[in-house]
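User: Show me a protein chain along with its predicted structure.
Assistant: Here is one chain, sequence first, then structure tokens.
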Amino acid sequence: MNFNNTDTKNSTAIVKVACAIVFCLFSFVYLYFYQADMLSVAQHILSGGATHYDRLIGAVVITSSLFLLQTGVSSLCRLSGKYHALTFFPSALVLAVITDIGPGIAGGHGLGFWLWLGPLALLLWLGIVFILSKYRLYEGSIPAARVFSRTLWINMMAMTVMLLFVGLSADGNSVFHYRMKMERCLLQGDIDKALETGMESAETDADLTMLRVYALARKGMLGDRLFTYPVAGTSDDIIPFEESSHCLMYPNDSIYRFLGAKPAHKVKALPFLQRLVRRSMATDAVRDYILCGYLIDRNLDAFIYYLPQYYEVNDSLPKHYREALILYTRQRSNPVLVYHNVVMDTDFDDLQALERQYNTESARRRKVFGQYAGTYWWYYKYMK
């Protein structure tokens, strides 16, 4: 009986199984948890909205296809021993290419630098495989079977490098990831999960703010929670337009139906919303869109003008509206509307006292953020 041959086969099997497990596990987790939203928008755009991406089916199908590709490459290259991990490079390259999805995909610029880097990387890999095959630098047999052998660790290091390459090549635009996750959640009707997306991050853009305005309005919390998120853009960005703020997956028409009507052409958001009110076409959410639009623009005079038309001015007002009223009352020498609230007046006095303790803008900003982030006062004074 040839024990050495048995040991060699066992060692080869251990290396192959270990590499396969690492690659398939990484691919599935990467696709299911991190890239599902990106692949959803890619399929939506490429299919013209005719099909949708299922994260579980997609992760299983793509991982299985990539493993089949590796199996074919392995049978052709016959790289064994410490070079076996190289047979996973074409699969890793394909995974990197199909998951490098960023904002440019909306304009048809999804591939980017892969048009030249992909073929170049593949040619380099083919050259390495050719050299290893021609000069027989790879091992035909492996020492006795051991789970923690040197050969296995060499393969694991090679796999780690390739999978890091996949992860680093993905688009790292966190705001775009938040936007796509929000749109997917909105498509699924999960408003709460949409509002949880990126709420601990200070990064945002006008499109993400537009989605949050819509989701908060759907929950009836726009006047209470809008400024607990970072806000970007102006009032013109709170409704979707193809040329500026817009959705990539979630239908823009759904937002307009929620408001009451869709404009025939591009108009400024606030005049359009006010026209809906005058023509009795507006839904209840429009009043908060208008008021929050003026707050986003820091236009307190317009906010004060419209507020009594939509709400009775008392302590039952949404939180941000009461904060804006306190700020307006304190800023104007002859205010049109005066509002006082014992708790909020005290909080505002404390804010001003805190600001007076620091001479530099950066120090004031840092200290005020720690206590007043999430208030309209913070947004109005410091979120430029």
